Structure to design on (278 residues):
């Protein structure tokens, strides 16, 4: 069924590149329903690659994730850091990355950019395109915006005994518009480069959960109540990128800082209190 639907697109349209964004991304859900994750993220993707080969479309930008670094041995994390998965979701990303390296090995006319996203947040400046999670948000920023809009009472901060500057988990938050710009740059890069390359898309800066909550409160003048909880299983203390490879080879650099990420996330939520249902 998937196969026919994807093939239909290739039959009826003429194009030379694919950006593959489709996939499930909730870690907890992947532990509960691994088959669902392997089916969609791996099997669906396999079909896509098979059809790309059949129609001789061999230029690809693939959405991977910083999750492929598992529990990183050192930060900042560069692309040569060892890959490991702590859950089925992470494993699906590593499997697809491995498939792509095998594919290139077998046929060097492929041009593949693997983009390892750190923590995308923010929204389009227009306030018209933003993030609408299904059900209760599992990621931090959509949880914060739903507290700000009054949908949820407070943010539960998972762990405050990490070895970080304030005890809460540190991540490399990146504005979604910067992430988009990274994709355009990757596609341009592939115009003149064969091969398979992985790139970190991150800012290179780490912020804690409390940094994010406080910045959000300050720039948007809204109070965000929070409560400390136990650590969430599977979480790492600190993760942030070394984005040097993307800076140098893709001529890409994140432009937006944490304040703009917070302003833009809030603008979208404020204009769309019930998400796209409005
Ligand atoms: C998670 C996934 C990652 C996935 C990404 C996008 C893990 C280990 N990683 O990243 O693989 O690609 O989401 O879906 O799950 N936090 C709270 N309270 C909350 C929510 C989060 O304190 O209600 C904390 C977390 O403990 C973490 C930080 O906020 O320290 C960021 O969490 P989150 O937004 O879920 O992203 P990651 O866990 O980094």
């Amino acid at each position: 069924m998937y196969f026919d639907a994807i093939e239909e697109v290739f039959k009826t349209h003429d194009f030379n590149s694919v950006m593959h964004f489709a996939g499930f991304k909730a870690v907890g859900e992947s532990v509960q329903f691994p088959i669902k994750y392997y089916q969609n993220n791996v099997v669906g993707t396999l079909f896509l690659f098979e059809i790309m080969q059949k129609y001789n479309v061999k230029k690809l930008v693939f959405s991977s994730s910083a999750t492929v670094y598992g529990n990183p041995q050192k930060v900042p994390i560069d692309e040569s850091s060892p890959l490991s998965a702590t859950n089925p979701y992470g494993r699906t990303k590593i499997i697809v990355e491995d498939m792509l390296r095998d594919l290139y090995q077998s046929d060097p006319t492929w041009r593949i950019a693997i983009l390892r996203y750190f923590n995308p947040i923010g929204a389009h400046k227009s306030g018209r395109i933003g993030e609408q999670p299904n059900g209760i948000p599992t990621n931090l920023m959509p949880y914060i915006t739903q507290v700000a809009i009054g949908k949820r009472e407070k943010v539960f901060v998972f762990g405050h005994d990490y070895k970080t500057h304030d005890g809460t988990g540190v991540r490399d938050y990146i504005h979604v518009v910067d992430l988009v710009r990274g994709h355009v740059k990757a596609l341009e890069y592939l115009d003149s480069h064969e091969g398979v390359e992985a790139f970190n898309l991150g800012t290179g800066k780490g912020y804690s959960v409390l940094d994010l909550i406080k910045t959000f409160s300050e720039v948007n003048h809204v109070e965000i109540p929070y409560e400390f909880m136990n650590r969430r299983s599977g979480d790492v203390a600190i993760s942030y990128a070394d984005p040097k490879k993307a800076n140098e080879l893709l001529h890409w650099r994140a432009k937006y800082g944490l304040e703009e990420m917070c302003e833009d996330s809030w603008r979208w939520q404020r204009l769309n209190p019930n998400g796209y249902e409005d």
Remarks:
- Residues 25, 27, 65, 67, 119, 138-140, 143, 155-158, 169, 171, 209, 232, 234-235 surround uridine-diphosphate-N-acetylglucosamine (CB under 6 Å).
- The chain has a mean pLDDT of 96.
